[in-house]
Design a protein that fits this description.
Elements: E1 2-7, E2 12-19, E3 22-30, H1 35-50, E4 59-63, H2 69-86, E5 90-93, H3 95-100, H4 105-108, E6 113-118, E7 124-129, E8 140-142, E9 156-158, H5 162-165, E10 173-174, H6 183-193
Parallel strand pairs: 1-4, 4-5, 6-9, 9-10
Antiparallel strand pairs: 1-2, 2-3, 6-7, 7-8
Helix pairs in contact: 1-2
Length: about 220
């Protein structure tokens, strides 16, 4: 099985090629903006380094959010276009799930893991996981001071919004892990859940309306 995966949903851009348990090529660059220019050259680079043609791919994987509205759309639009052009299936992974898998087992074993993604407004996108990375609930948009109301007193915090939550949960511990999705992790997660039929459709997961709407459009109601 060969998977091309990429992510642009937060403040980073990454792409990776995975084959039968091995990462053949990977690129990861933190960036607050500019993913639309960086993503395709990054994909071209990892495909060339891996020595893989688009026709060799079994699956194209992408993060579906929640995250930056524009970033989620960039990743999904690219994945759909490549899937259509190469006639290959496209599948998604939640941004929060990809970040959760960055945390080493030793840090989360026997603990609750709270992933907090910076929503770039007053709130954060939060999802709890067990130490074995099974979700304990859905993703929610919450003010940082409201996160303790979820009832997890001493969690491990991870994500680029974790430091906004920490002052309100003084008994929590910050994970020693990257707080953005990594395409190599996205590929590895999809390699496990795709054959089981548990991968997500390549549709955006938004928890709030976009910052900008076109004149004359109706208010966002999802």
């Amino acid at each position: 099985m060969i998977i091309l995966a990429f992510d642009t949903s937060t403040a980073a851009c990454s792409a990776a090629v995975w084959r039968d348990g091995e990462i053949l090529a990977r690129r990861f660059t933190p960036m607050a903006r500019g993913q639309s220019e960086a993503l395709v050259p990054m994909i071209v680079a990892v495909m060339a380094e891996a020595g893989v043609n688009y026709g060799d791919l079994s699956l194209i994987g992408v993060t579906v959010g929640p995250g930056a509205f524009t970033g989620v759309r960039i990743g999904l639009a690219t994945a759909r276009a490549m899937g259509l052009a190469a006639d290959r299936p496209v599948a998604g992974v939640l941004t929060t799930e990809a970040i959760a898998h960055n945390v080493p087992e030793a840090q989360r074993q026997g603990r609750t893991l709270l992933v907090a993604v910076d929503a770039k407004r007053a709130d954060v996108f939060v999802q709890p996981f067990r130490g074995d990375l099974a979700p304990l609930g859905p993703v929610r948009g919450l003010l940082p001071e409201a996160v303790p109301e979820l009832g997890y007193a001493t969690p491990v915090l991870v994500g680029d919004g974790a430091e906004r939550v920490l002052p309100h949960m003084p008994d929590a511990v910050l994970a020693d892990a990257v707080g953005w999705p990594d395409a190599a992790v996205v590929a590895a997660v999809l390699a496990r859940i795709w054959p089981e039929g548990r991968a997500l459709a390549p549709e955006p997961v938004y928890l709030r309306p976009p910052d900008v709407t076109l004149p004359g459009t109706k208010p966002w109601t999802r």
